[in-house]
Amino acid sequence: MQIFIIEYLISFLKRIRNYSLDKLVIILAHFILLRSRVFYEKYELIEDAEIKVFSQNGEDGIIDYIVQKLNLKKPSFVEIGVGDYSESNTRLLYEMYYGNGLIIDKNKDLKKKISQNLNLWKGTLKVVEAQVSAQNINSLLEANMSFSVDLFSIDIDGIDYWVVNELAKKISKVFIVEYNPVFGSESEVSVPNIDNFSRDKYHYSNLCYGASLKAYVRLMDQKGYYLLGVNRLRNNAFFINKDYPKSTYFPKIKEISNLELTNSNFSESRDEFKKLNYLSGNNKIKAIIDCEIINLKNQKNKKIKIRNLKEN
């Protein structure tokens, strides 16, 4: 109950958007994480560690859990898709450790917006304003990343799969990627690799974006990672470099089925007039049944409509 109250207070203080109050948020975050670390050895699912400070959901707590278990003293990071950095997976890492970081987003005047509520001088945080694609990701990293990466996170609501596909193997110790639970537990699919992909323009429902969890599990296995778990909302997957075996670092974390890992109840669907209509269950996939995706199964990489998946 005490932790819940502190999380609520943090949420309230963040809405005020005051630099001095942000300092209080960090103090409260330190307190709540220290209280939570007492239980880290007991957790059987990484979602048990969820705490929301600057992340969209509870990723802050999961990241702290993983950082502690891997004994990362000053975690370095890359995050692609950060908005104005008020809600992101790595903001708390920077605020707590002031290590090396690189954040990339297409948000206009990105550095100006971030510098208004963040001490950029306390660490080495490179801010790059750019639209990331499969074609430019490696050149962006080569030009702006001068450190080895502990944690890599990507959430660009679109062609994430194709960007990740271009990355070097074992580029980091921890890798976080957003997946689309609407695609279900068995499909290995992604939206096509389209230049300047826009989630809301590709399909009015806002539901046809990204890639399925199963597609990422296969791809990340090839990249040298294993799936540790997902967040409670069921849209962010956490992968660990195979150099850090699960049996050694996370022996108590249980494996659960893809069906459970994609059992998501959140609803952000929209109708033809762009209004939220809160579709649930099978109505989500029915809304995008004629959406074109790439079937990645057996490396066919064939573009088909979702309604024809079972035939391919």
Judged by helices, strands and strand pairing, the structural class is: alpha/beta
- Total count of domains: 2
- Give the ordered list of helices and strands: HHHEHEHEHEHEEHHEEHHHEE
Query: Mean pLDDT across all residues, rounded?
Result: 92
The low-confidence parts are none
Protein described:
It is a single chain. The chain is of the alpha/beta class. The protein folds into two domains: 1-38; 43-267, 3-Layer(aba) Sandwich (Rossmann fold), CATH 3.40.50.150. The chain contains twelve helices and ten strands. The strands form two sheets. Strands 3-2-1-4-5-8-7 form a seven-stranded mixed β-sheet, with helices on one face. Strands 6-9-10 form a three-stranded antiparallel β-sheet, with no helix packed on it. The chain is globular and about 50 Å long.
Q: Characteristics of this structure?
A:
312 residues; alpha/beta; Rossmann fold; seven-stranded mixed beta sheet; three-stranded antiparallel beta sheet; 10 strands; 33% helix; 16% strand; globular
Explain the layout of strands and helices.
Elements: H1 2-16, H2 19-37, H3 59-69, E1 77-80, H4 91-97, E2 100-105, H5 110-115, E3 124-129, H6 137-144, E4 149-154, H7 160-166, E5 172-178, E6 189-190, H8 199-202, H9 213-223, E7 225-230, E8 236-241, H10 246-249, H11 258-261, H12 282-287, E9 292-295, E10 302-305
